Amino acid sequence: MLKQNLSQKLLQKLSPQQIQLMKLLQVPTAALEQRIKEEMEANPALEEGHEQEEEQQESDDIFVSDAKKEKDGNDAEDTSSDDMELSDYINDYLDDDTADYKLKSNNYTTDEEDKSIPIPVENTFHEYLEQQLGLINLPEDDVIIALQIIGSIDDDGYLRREPIAIVDDLAFSQNVMTSSDKVVSLLEVIQRLDPAGVGARDLRECLLIQLERKLEGEEQQHDGVKNAATLIRNHFEEFSKKHYEKLQKQMGISEAMLKEAVDEILKLNPKPASGYASGNRIQHYIVPDFIITNDNGDLTLVLNSRNAPELRISDSYKDMLKDFGGSVKGRRRNKKEREAVMFIKQKIDSAKWFIDAIKQRQQTMYKTMYSIMQYQYDFFLSGDQKRLRPMILKDIAEITGLDISTVSRVANSKYVQTEFGTKRLKDFFSESLQTDSGEEVSTLEVKKILTELIEKENKRKPLSDEKLKDELRKAGYNIARRTVAKYREQLNIPVARLRKQL
After folding, report:
1. Which end of the chain has fewer CB within 10 Å, C or N?
2. CA–CA dist 297, 461 (Å, integer)
3. Which sign does the torsion angle of CA 30, 33, 34, 35 carry?
4. For 462-496, b where at least 16 C-beta lie within 10 A, e where not — what string?
5. For residues 335 and 337, what is the distance between their CA atoms, to the nearest angstrom?
6. CA distances for 108 relative to 48, 305, 362, angstroms
7. Tens-digit pLDDT profile for residues 196-239
8. Dihedral through CA 139, CA 140, CA 143, CA 145, nearest 10?
């Protein structure tokens, strides 16, 4: 049985302009220029440059409304209602001088020189290996296999693929039939190339290759290097777990000799390819979105707008509107003319929305960062992490009057340049922890003190999480052992056993 019901619903929907602003807020300064270029390519009504002032008298002469003509008795033919709306739109647009849409920030002047960072051109790590391979006299088939092995080496310098997988690759991609033994024998050739350790299949092999290379070059066999090679070759598991007392007994050496061997190992490079360019690695440069300067105790905040060019509405599109207004006086517009002018209107509206969204982005970002700067004023003056106050998104949202999600979008992927380095905005947000005196302190302060305790500990007997908890409680921070373990892991600090040194 069919029924009809009448009900009311309260729905909140975002307009296209609001959605566009939310997306722009998430874009960091480094990527803003590319986003603007994409919009300009999609919308020809948007272009770079200053918004020029229009001669209002000229526009008034061209776009006199049909209603005014009829009143004066000079209009013999009525125009359609959509033509009237169009004329009103054109007049409204040309009369709108409330915004010049200038986006240039005050943090640099027009005569300031644009400087670009030169990008060095250098051979990639794999090209370097291929050049060395070309100096070795190998049969043509072996060269093909060796090149396949080099291509399978990762950006750290390791070969993490099984020989049988390389055999299959050669069969499918190059129709070259070989065996795992042949791949292994040619891998040994590649492992003799520079840098030492390249082509290793794991960390143990990487370190051992480097030590054996050292032993080959020593005119007098160095005991420290020999003991280091023995340690890696025969006792790698004990070494990785830092069971030093056990190693001394197994190798029959003194603590001083073991320390000398460990020192030799610490000189080695666990990632042989780390010092070379990589064809697969993308270099990421941090571009600060904000800049805070300290002028004798007064903090100044500016937006970094180097990647936000000035935008304006295209003159050619405005001219098209003028031409249309002048060509249809006294007659009804046909369908094609209406479609053409609606297309122009759509593009101009879209351009205005985008320009306004860019301006709102700048204003919202400045408002949010200014509130953060004021909230963490002591830190930005001193750079001392212990002076960071507990701060969550809700705190800044209440100060700015913005939504929490908006503050989150601003804080995400944004950086601020200070006298103490370039910092992530996300790093200023932290929960609070109550001290024994009842004072609310930031968890970042606790992590800083935890780091200092670990830096000052006796490396022969590192502090366990339980002892770290006791030290923090002595300092007045009421904290549980599991919380200490959590903070230590967040700081990428290993457990006490792995921090042990001789």
Report:
1. N
2. 43
3. positive
4. bbebebbbebbeeeebebeeebbbebbeeeebeeb
5. 5
6. 18, 9, 15
7. 999 999 999 999 999 988 888 664 567 888 888 888 999 888 88
8. -100
Query: In which order are the strands placed within the sheet that holds 415-418?
Result: 298-303, 290-295, 415-418, 421-424
Residue 239 CA to its chain's centroid (Å): 37
| Residues in contact with 153: Cβ distance below 8 Å, sequence separation at least 6, in sequence order | 126, 129, 159, 190, 198, 199, 273
CA distance 75 to 67: 9
What CA–CA distance (Å, rounded) separates 176 from 172? 8
3-state secondary structure of 294: strand
Helix (H, G, I), strand (E, B) or coil at 216: helix
Predicted confidence at residue 366, as pLDDT, reads 92
Burial status of residue 447 (CB atoms within 10 A of its CB: 0-12, 13-18, 19 or more): middle
**CB-based contact 407:368 (threshold 8 Å):** yes
372-399 tens-digit pLDDT: 999 999 999 988 888 888 888 999 999 9
This prediction has a pTM of 0.59
Please state, in angstroms and rounded to a whole number, the distance separating the CA atoms of residues 391 and 408: 13
Residue 332 has which token pair?
């009804």
**Could you give the angle at which helices 404-411 and 335-375 cross, rounded to 10 degrees?**
80
pLDDT in tens, 415-452: 999 998 899 898 888 877 777 776 777 788 888 888 88
| The pair of three-digit structure tokens given for residue 422, joined into one six-digit string | 């370039």
Distant-in-sequence, close-in-space partners of 347: CB < 8 Å, separation ≥ 6: 43, 44, 45, 317
DSSP 84: H
What SS3 state is found at 457? Answer: coil
Q: Kindly state the average pLDDT of the residues 353-375.
A: 90
Residues 101, 52: contact at Cβ < 8 Å? no
Place of tokens 């040309």: 94
Start-to-end Cα distance in the chain? 86
Higher-pLDDT residue of 66 and 400 is 400
Exposure string for 197-226, b = 16+ CB within 10 A, e = fewer:
bbbbbebebbbbbbbbebeeeeeeeeebbb
Average pLDDT, integer, range 71-93: 47
Q: How many CB atoms lie within 10 A of CB 40?
A: 18
- Please, how many CA atoms are within 13 Å of residue 80, restricted to the half-sphere of its CB? 11
Phi, psi at residue 47, to the nearest 5°?
-150, 165
Q: Is the pLDDT of residue 64 over 60?
A: no
Residue 26 is classified by DSSP as: H
8 Å CB contact between 188 and 140: no
Q: ω before 195 within 30° of 0 (cis)?
A: yes
Q: How far is CA 80 from CA 60, 72, 135, 338, in A?
A: 20, 19, 83, 11
